[in-house]
Amino acid sequence: METIQLAAFGDKKDLRMETATIDLISDRNERIPINVLIVPTIATPISTRLQHTAARLPYLRKLKLAHPVTEREDFLC
After folding, report:
1. Pick from 18, 48, 52: which is nearest to 36 by CA?
2. Do 3 and 28 lie in a common domain?
3. 2 and 35: one domain?
4. For the chain, how many structural domains are there in total?
5. Pairing of strands 31-38, 2-8
6. pTM confidence score
7. Are 6 and 13 in contact (CB under 8 A)?
8. What is the band of 19 on the pLDDT scale with cuts at 50, 70, 90?
9. Please, what's the largest Cα pairwise distance for the chain?
10. I need a labelling partner for 16 at 20 to 30 A (CA). Which of 29, 46, 50, 63 fits?
């Protein structure tokens, strides 16, 4: 467990959060350990309309995105 201070929009809170260590696997199959905080929700899902707009941008076409463009409803929830 770790205590963090979160400040946003003029409000400050001390939050006690669980921690864990995960391994990130690189494209070259290297393991990189990362210490993380466990939170129930980071952000709300991107709307489908914005996903399709981003998919048409030429400079994003060949990038590996963290949130792939999909129309699957179960992925967006």
Report:
1. 18
2. yes
3. yes
4. 2
5. unpaired
6. 0.47
7. yes
8. very high
9. 43
10. 46
